[in-house]
């Protein structure tokens, strides 16, 4: 749209004065806020106010909300809401769409000239300090926090305390491999639930699956947890992560200690003379929406025969 075609010189317009700087004789006005349909007054909203809003639009980094009952426009970053809810941005986006009500928000700042406010998650009330994490008291199902110190194809190493460490396997990071992050970055901080305890080595096995972290309003896992070969059936279609590639085929991680062997003949429908070029370690198995299918079970070695054809 060309502004000169809409606002021709000499045309009478109605504008609302937003701010006046007497020293510089600078006046900021808004035609949009002078319309009859514009009913909100951002100046009436104070920083620190508790609000809720309805999702109007999902942008690349922010959520555009209409606050209730004022009708004011607000911006809420995906990262801020994900941190507040204890989840990650990809999984958060799957639960948001226009019309969804987002509550427990607080006004962080106002932009009077633009006519909108910035909101964030309302801080949770302070709780009593919990005792330091100890191997004597830690329990299955307990939520713990730590920092990623090392990340490899077999999972992430998490430092919980100076004496207690943890591990996060790629298959324990999320319920949907397409939208989760199976390999969190080094130095990132995370919250996870304890699913295994080894007091001999002061080591905890962790999970950040939403189905493990919370018991309410959680969708059924798309990629379910595999704890052993007893959880598998011959002919079942399942997904995992490429662990290693060799001249004879590859191995795919289906769960902690559960690897699937895929022979070359079971990789593709056609013969490929450079099949290693088509599969890389740590890629989700398999790309192009192909799903591996269990071919056989070797219980003694926790190995699974696998076919991607």
Tell me which CATH architecture of the largest domain applies here: Beta Barrel
Under CATH, the homologous superfamily of the largest domain reads Nucleic acid-binding proteins
Shape designation: elongated
The rounded distance between the terminal residues' Cα atoms is 52 Å
Mean pLDDT: 78
Which strand order does the major sheet show? 13-18-19-16-15-14-17
**Cα-atom radius of gyration:** 27 Å
List the domain count as a whole number. 3
**Structural class designation:** mainly beta
Specify the number of helices. Answer: 4
Report the sheet with the most strands, covering strand number, pairing sense and barrel closure: 7 strands, mixed
Per DSSP E runs of 2 or more residues, the count of β-strands stands at 19
- Give me the CATH fold name of the largest domain: OB fold (Dihydrolipoamide Acetyltransferase, E2P)
**Proportion of strand residues:** 35-45%
Helical coverage, percent range: under 10%
pLDDT < 50 runs, ≥5 residues: 279-309
The CATH class assignment of the largest domain is Mainly Beta
């Amino acid at each position: 749209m060309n502004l000169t075609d809409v606002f021709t010189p000499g045309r009478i317009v109605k504008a609302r004065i937003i701010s006046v700087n007497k020293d510089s004789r600078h006046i900021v006005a808004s035609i949009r806020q002078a319309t009859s349909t514009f009913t909100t007054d951002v100046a009436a909203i104070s920083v620190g106010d508790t609000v809720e809003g309805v999702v109007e639009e999902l942008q690349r980094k922010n959520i555009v909300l209409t606050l209730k009952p004022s009708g004011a426009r607000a911006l809420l970053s995906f990262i801020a809401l994900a941190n507040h809810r204890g989840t990650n941005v990809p999984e958060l986006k799957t639960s948001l769409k226009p019309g969804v009500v987002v509550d427990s928000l607080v006004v962080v700042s106002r932009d009077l000239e633009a006519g909108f406010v910035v909101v964030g998650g309302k801080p949770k009330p302070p709780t009593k300090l919990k005792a330091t994490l100890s191997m004597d008291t830690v329990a299955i199902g307990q939520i713990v926090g730590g920092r990623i110190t090392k990340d490899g194809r077999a999972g992430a190493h998490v430092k919980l305390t100076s004496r207690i460490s943890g591990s996060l396997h790629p298959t324990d990071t999320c319920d949907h491999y397409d939208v989760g992050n199976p390999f969190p970055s080094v130095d990132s901080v995370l919250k996870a639930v304890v699913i295994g305890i080894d007091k001999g080595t002061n080591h905890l096995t962790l999970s950040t699956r939403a189905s493990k972290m919370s018991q309410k309003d959680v969708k059924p896992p798309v990629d379910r947890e595999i704890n052993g070969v007893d959880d598998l059936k011959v002919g079942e279609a399942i997904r995992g992560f490429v662990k290693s590639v060799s001249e004879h085929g590859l191995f795919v991680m289906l769960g902690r200690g559960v690897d699937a062997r895929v022979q070359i003949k079971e990789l593709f429908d056609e013969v490929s003379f450079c099949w290693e070029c088509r599969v890389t370690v740590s890629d989700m198995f398999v790309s192009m929406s192909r799903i591996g299918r269990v071919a056989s079970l070797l219980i003694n070695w926790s190995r699974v025969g696998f076919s991607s054809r």
